[in-house]
Design brief:
The complex is a heterotrimer of chains A (about 475), B (about 325) and C (about 300).
Chain A lengths: L20 E2 L1 E3 L2 E3 L5 E6 L4 E7 L3 H17 L6 H17 L1 H12 L3 H22 L21 E5 L5 H14 L3 E5 L6 H12 L7 E3 L4 H9 L5 E5 L2 H11 L5 E5 L5 E4 L5 H13 L11 E5 L3 H12 L20 H16 L3 E4 L14 E4 L6 H4 L6 E7 L2 H9 L6 E5 L3 H10 L4 E4 L18 E2 L4 H6 L8
Parallel strand pairs in A: 1-5, 6-7, 6-9, 7-8, 9-10, 11-12, 11-16, 12-15, 14-15, 16-17
Antiparallel strand pairs in A: 2-3, 4-5, 10-18, 13-14
Helix pairs in contact in A: 1-7, 2-4, 3-4, 4-5, 9-10
Chain B lengths: L2 H16 L6 H9 L6 H11 L6 H13 L1 E4 L7 H12 L13 E5 L3 H7 L6 E5 L10 H13 L4 E5 L2 H5 L3 H15 L3 E5 L2 H4 L2 H13 L4 E3 L11 H18 L4 E3 L7 H15 L11 E3 L2 H14 L18
Parallel strand pairs in B: 1-2, 1-8, 2-3, 3-4, 4-5, 5-6, 6-7
Helix pairs in contact in B: 1-9, 3-12, 4-13, 4-14, 7-9, 11-12, 12-13
Chain C lengths: L25 E5 L11 E6 L3 H20 L2 H17 L1 H12 L3 H21 L3 H5 L1 E2 L6 E9 L2 E5 L7 H12 L3 E5 L6 H11 L8 E4 L3 H10 L5 E3 L11 H9 L4 E3 L20 H5 L1 E9 L3
Helix pairs in contact in C: 1-8, 2-4, 3-4, 3-7, 4-6, 8-9
The chains are: A alpha/beta (about 475), B alpha/beta (about 325), C alpha/beta (about 300).
Chain lengths: ~475, ~325, ~300
Amino acid sequence: MTVIEYAPAPESRALVRLEASYGLFVGGEFVAASGPSFATINPATEEVLAQVSEASAAGVDAAVKAARTAYTRVWSKLSGTDRGKYLFRIARLLQERAREFAVLETLDNGKPITQSRDVDIPLAAAHFFYHAGWADKLAYAVPPGPGGSTPAPLGVVGGIIPWNFPLLMLAWKVAPALAAGNTIVLKPAETTPLTALLFAQVCQEAELPPGVVNIVTGAGATGAALVAHPGVDKIAFTGSTAVGKQIARALAGTRTSATLELGGKGANIVFDDAPLDEAIEGIVGGIFFNQGHVCCAGSRLLVQESIADEVERRLKRRLATLRVGDPLDKNTDVGAINSRTQLDTIAGLAHVGEAEGAHRWDTGCALPEQGFWFRPTVFTGVTQTHRIAQEEIFGPVLSVLTFRTPAEAVAKANNTPYGLAAGIWTEKGSRLLWLADQLKAGVVWGNTYNQFDPTSPFGGVKESGYGREGGRHGLAAYLQGEGH
Amino acid sequence: MSRTDLAAQTSASARDLLGVSRLTNAALTRWLHALPGVDQVGCEARAGALSTRSVKADSKRAAIDLAISMIDLTTLEGADTHNRVRGLAAKALRPDPTDPSTPRTAAVCVYGDMVATAKEALQGSDVKVAAVATAFPSGRASLAVKLVDTQDAVAAGADEIDMVIDRGAFLSGRYLDVFHQVARVKEAAGPARLKVIMETGELATYDNVRRASWLCLLAGADFIKTSTGKISPAATLPVTLVMLEAVRDWRDLTGTMAGVKPAGGIRTSKDAIRYLVAVQETAGADWLDNHWFRFGASSLLGDLLLQRQRLRDGVYSSVTYIADDSPSTAY
Amino acid sequence: MSRIDVRKTYKLYVGGKFPRSESGRTYPVYAAPARSGATPRLLANAAAASRKDAREAVVAARAAQPGWAGATAYNRGQVLYRVAEVMEGRREQFVADVRAAEGVSAARAEALVSAAIDRWVWYAGWSDKFTQVAGGVNPVAGPFFDVSVPEPVGVVAILAPQASSLLGLVSVLAPTIVTGNTAVVLTSATRPLPAVTLAECLATSDVPGGVVNILTGDPAEMAPWLASHRDVGGLDLTGAADAAGVDWGALEASAADTLTRVLRPGGTGAEAVEPDWLPEPGLGRMMRFVDVKTVWHPKGR
């Protein structure tokens, strides 16, 4: 039998020029590292990519002061038109250097190059392009109230972002913050700082006024220092619900506002009249895209009992075609788990799933010897009381549950403190719209999943956080008044 | 088995499958309309994702040879002559005279009146002769004419019959008419394998492509084929994807394999390899064989040969290095 | 001989009913003194709601919420407008209540009551407009229909303003419920009686029981239980200004454990200041207790 072999088609690393070590980016300059540093590695090979500074409270303070100075002296005095032009420049530079960013993102994060190339980087550029156009139209960004004046920026924003979409999450924070007239101190995740540092170079190339964007690398302590800094007017955080709650607590009683994009346990609901082939694709993309390191992942598959066996059979057949391996290979569908810590978390919860009696299945595919890997895994026979149906695994692990009626589907979907995203697969329009109303989720995808766009507000309800990113609503969260 | 028995048996199998005592248009409608819908956006996104697969080096060479071996080298012009058909047959037998290791194409596809000529030119080889029939390309003729058209081609030696369905009947919901026509043509084709052209460009929606695929399979098609090549759009990857899903699920349901033939509009090696990837990842590797998958194409062969020479010689080749009786069709 | 008047027992308003506090407690409510040093005039013994009353109120609000949010916007608008009609009918009582509670002149009380009724009408009218103004269709770069709409956060606990006993109360309550939330209101601690009269208006209009629940008593005692309550989705701390014993920062910290949406009190820094309620308010209070839901669907043939 003939088989088409997908020979390795690795993307070249030649575009990426890594420094041995990186300092903080403060006031438009890279500040030589003085304190401790940490290594950032390629999770697919465990190769050390670079040493990165760990910003202390003093480092954070310097960055916040630089941001304040830039806000007071330069950025708040620029016209919206000129602010917008800087953002357009950045958007174009991201497009010009897209492949370099994509390769670097894949090296540092472990995600497949096709995803960094076709999703992360283009969307990041699109975010800057979209928000650039807002900079001189802020009066239209919130519904005009009595008086109808242009809403004012907040001042200095502290951005803290996760490791699953490093540059894209940076764009989600930086673009609206700057468009609204704020300056920003951004802390990338400790396992994925490199594209943020490359972005700092882009800011220099764009001749963005010094201090408008500052990058402080580090781990939780650095983030906590940023949250605790009295000179920060807003915290924009994407990450876990546990840390989100800590931030909300830390900001309680202050006048610092926050948007929190947190965890989720998304229900992907499949009815017996679904467009089945596309639903299978949506299930697969919903949980295995980006190794399942997606806050809005469809990690709970709720399938109508009448087609559960059929869906399970088709799903497993489809999963057998997933290619797990070298993230730089253009044929890879599922890349490396971002860190050993995360791999341990995933493995631990998968073990719990088995111990609680759910049936575990994986593709049995070969995995590389070096690096952090986890096979695409499906648990069947899961009920709402299983921990794998309640806790965010943040990995390529799907829990399959069944339901009998639309009302039961809604009840199960909503039976979680989370409320970020949900999917509905049915060709019956009225049922889809009814469900979309009933689901407690900030984003509902009907007959599709994991779609993102700069114009489209994204964010959670309940313990998946508050505030929106994208669209008019996302921008308003960086302005004084009604949005925050 | 007599010829009338075959159509009757097809109907009997269909009744079994549908679980009805009488095969009516209503029963067929219920069955076809109960198939899952196809979401256009999702389907096209999946086809797009399949297109990003990268096939390199040795596997690319193998894929190119496989694609060559799957071509139904086609000429379907009013201006066709016997010499042109002989030229085409020679090309099918020796696609690249500079390299005898080049595989032959699967078949030569011609109008019925050219079958004897093609058959003679291909004598002694395993290259099949396929004839378009049933008032190709429009299908606008009586069933009697279509049957005679088919019998005529088979009598002249056609190994394969490429029929067209009555799209008017399909679009107006007369599924039973389409079923009977296919079943009767299948019967008339006798030993020849039957490819059924759905003319997906006229069916307009993926839901229709899926329903037409299942209808043709139910009526005994050995192959389902996208297009005549006379209507735009002809073959597209998403349409082929829907058809591959149909044959895959048909095998799950009945245990019987059927072939798929995208035809028209596939011009480059890159395109062809994308289709092969779609075959492998959708229907499965069982279909990676010219018994189960074909390309209806005329100019595709030229590009496959160029790429083959490029891989062999290490330099980009030129059409002037591709011997062809009708070189104008190389591009 | 003058007639002996019939005095009112001031009770709580929970689930559409007027219970006493389960604790059996009351506390004296005095008129605002006309001048300093004057002997305070006892207006009534108001119910002093307890932690358990607050809990019952949340249960009632939670039960009423899906139906209230699920009603058509047109219907919610009509129901809320009806409240304004009933308020107008009780106008004299409100004027007397506000005058006694706030120690203002008759003319000022008239103005405040008018503003409160007008404010209620203003918000009622937003019911079927807010979604359009606050939502919209997003022009995404792909073949998708993509629409964003604001949805209520659920049950909102409100610390009503301490000073503005009616206009302030209306200005925090109406924007919360018009978008489909239900509310548990802790009234002004020392000026609770206009809120009880408002409860009577709500009870005699068409507002479903449980949509608004009004608790009189000590906010410092009840607020922590509401702030930490896991079934409470929103917390309005406006009334923390000048509320004895209320630490709004601590309440916000407590709400953080369930990521409850918090509307901070006015003012800067730790200081809480009650705003001027007379200017037209804008959308802010409605926006604070909604979450925007975005729905995607492919567009294909």
